[in-house]
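Predict the holo structure. Ligand: s-citryldethia Coenzyme A.
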Amino acid sequence: MTKEVFTLRSPDGQKIELPIRKGTTGPDVIEIGKLFKECGVFTYDPGFVSTGSCESKITYIDGKDGVLTYRGYRVEQLAKHSNFIEVAYLLLYGELPTSDQLCQFETSITRHTMLNEGMLRFFNGFRYDAHPMAVVSAVVGSMSAYYHDTMDINSVEAQEIFAHRIIAKIPTIAAAAHKLTAGQPFIYPRNDLKYAENFLRMLFAVPAEEYEIDEVAVEALDLLLILHADHEQNCSTSTVRMAGSSGANPYSAIAAGISALWGPAHGGANEAVLRMLKEIGSVSNIQKYVEKAKDKKDSFRLMGFGHRVYKNYDPRAEIIRKMCHKVLIKMGHLESPLFDLALELEQVALNDEYFIKKNLYPNVDFYSGIIYRALGIPTSMFTVIFAMARTVGWVAHWREMITDPNGRISRPRQLYSGPRERDYLNIEDRVRDHPVG
Ligand code: SDX
């Protein structure tokens, strides 16, 4: 079969044929690796809007039709029929587990939930009001100082131990970060509890009384963990792949991903949505803020709206909105002013010419914060929970990258627009004609 090629003509008239590669589904890609060698030019795509950084078999997104699949399964079906531990297995190993495989996997995760006692002392070094994302990224990075046995990134066994360890421990670390700022004692995990309920208990339980597990809260959290588990080559996942490509240990690569997720343009948006809704305050202020979001001179953006890939409804937002309703009824917050405000804001924005023209729809972060708040989870913990879920996707992508036989260090190039070459200037000959800082 003749290989399809993309033909380019260089500025000096030279014809260049670049191979086209097809995936299982989705856009084809043009392999440009030889472009610099043969033409002496780089491609240029700040923000990587049209650039594929790797080949992956994990998650597929169709932004036009609002489709998201994990290893080929629609996220709507997984949300309806599966649970987070089973989805974690699917993302890591590529297939849904048999009951024995699921039992073995869940037992292994459960038995790795405790932290090395030395790590617990680490938490006491933080200020009482430290943001939990700062604590979690630091503690995850410190795991490379504790787990030397899983630092051989080329050992299949070490990769497996790392994967189970980090997925198991991230809820314990997350809950401990909250306890630190709440001034409450750390709560140890329990092996008789499932993943989501174990986390809620570590987050909310106090030694003074028994913690009563709320089934709707567990169901809502498990669903949110499924929906946040992976999302193709997003900013934080690309960060994990980039950091891991140098051969750095996997704990440091995950810590880098946590830091990237923290930004308000990415995982930090769920916390920013709550702050934004509180700032808007009432339905009567919505139009003013929608106008601010449209004003190019104003840096304000509608947090929880827009997406680099989805130019249609984010399928996750739709599922979360329905769960929002169920949780609010159960938690007795049905008259939740924030939820009503969010529903009204969504309607105003979706009927506004600017948002329609730019295909700006609510994304995964728009409603999740309302559920977290209804569950009593502090706003500063919203992105931490996103990181907890995304750890599974980061681990799956890290392992796919590290086991790629064609893998190499990620090292992009640039368009240089700085000063031309010039000679050193002695200090007495220098004049301050440049702005300082
Ligand atoms: C996540 O990548 C992923 O998959 C991420 C994620 C995942 O699961 O990993 O899905 C999770 O990060 C979701 C996104 C959370 N972020 C927010 O909700 C923050 C608010 N949204 C944005 O800042 C923005 O929409 C981004 C960051 C999400 C997308 O940015 P892009 O793709 O770079 O788009 P852009 O900034 O170039 O915007 C295109 C246009 C611009 O106007 P023009 O310059 O063309 O005139 O749309 C406007 C923007 O000004 N725009 C918005 C807007 N988002 C985009 N205007 C007002 N409010 C907004 N929210």
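The mean pLDDT is 94. Residues 47, 231, 234, 265-267, 269, 293, 301-309, 358, 360, 363-365 surround s-citryldethia Coenzyme A (CB under 6 Å).
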